[in-house]
Amino acid sequence: MKMIESNAKHIATFKKKMTSLIKEAHKLSITAEEHVVILVYSPSGNPYFYDSSYNFNTIDTFLDQNLENIVVDPDDMKAYTIH
Predict the structure, then answer these.
(1) Do the Cβ atoms of 9 and 15 come closer than 8 Å?
(2) Which pLDDT tens digits describe the chain residue by residue (83 residues)?
(3) In a domain, 2, yes or no
(4) Number of domains in the chain
(5) Which helix (H) or strand (E) holds 82?
(6) Checking CA distances to 72, which of 19, 62, 80, 83 falls within 20 to 30 Å?
(7) Range(s) of the domain holding residue 11
(8) How much is the pTM?
(9) Could you tell me if residue 23 is inside a domain?
(10) How crowded is the C-beta side of 17, counted as CA atoms within 13 Å?
């Protein structure tokens, strides 16, 4: 996989993939009856947020409950996993 060089293509690809990701998250929340939250920043720095419960306090709640359980992946400092 190679990086997209054109800014216009980069933004178009991001929007297309983001739409697809949100659709899949919505399907997962319905079929698995689970609470799904997605927070992604666009290439321009704008946040995109999806919360299957429509409770927009989810990130604060998550951080309050799980801060001590967050583990940083040493191979990718941007990836976080919860144990």
Answers:
(1) no
(2) 788 888 888 888 888 999 999 999 999 999 998 888 888 888 888 888 888 887 667 767 766 665 555 555 555 544 444 44
(3) no
(4) 1
(5) strand 80-82
(6) 19
(7) 7-82
(8) 0.62
(9) yes
(10) 10
